[in-house]
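=== RUN LOG ===
request id: a7f3
mode: sequence -> structure
chains: 1
length: 159
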Amino acid sequence: MQIWVDADACPVVIKDILFRAASRLRVRLTLVANKPLRVAASPYIKTLQVSGGFDVADNEIAARMQSGDLVITADIPLASQVLQLGGHALNPRGELYSKDNIEERLSLRNFLSELRNSGIATGGPAPIGQADRHAFASQLDRLLAKLLADAASSPVSSA
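=== RESULT ===
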């Protein structure tokens, strides 16, 4: 199990939480972006720079992730793809995407996109606040504890 981060738009405070978790739990963390990134010094943390372009980082994450991996993304189509591939998807505000909620999120995203394309200003998400950071950290801790316990009890665990 490893963590993949759709890092181009991931807030720095969320990356910092991820750096601490990866080092503390000794879990591989890969940040995928189309620009160079600065990361914490750790044998568990690396970056993967991809070329610029629409969905290039998303496509790279989907191609490299494996079933059981965790992907941090606010991109709902990527989250949907991750779920289809047997992974787990968590957004930077602490919302865990699931088979039960992803269709609704996709529908809302598509609706808002249609509004924007027709010239209606929909605004963007609010800045990440303290409550969002806390929700993300709490959900990440719970999810990683579960995923690591599941991996440890699995008959074939990978390092």
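=== NOTES ===
The CA atoms of residues 73 and 91 lie 5 Å apart.
Residues 130-153 form the longest helix (24 residues).
=== END ===
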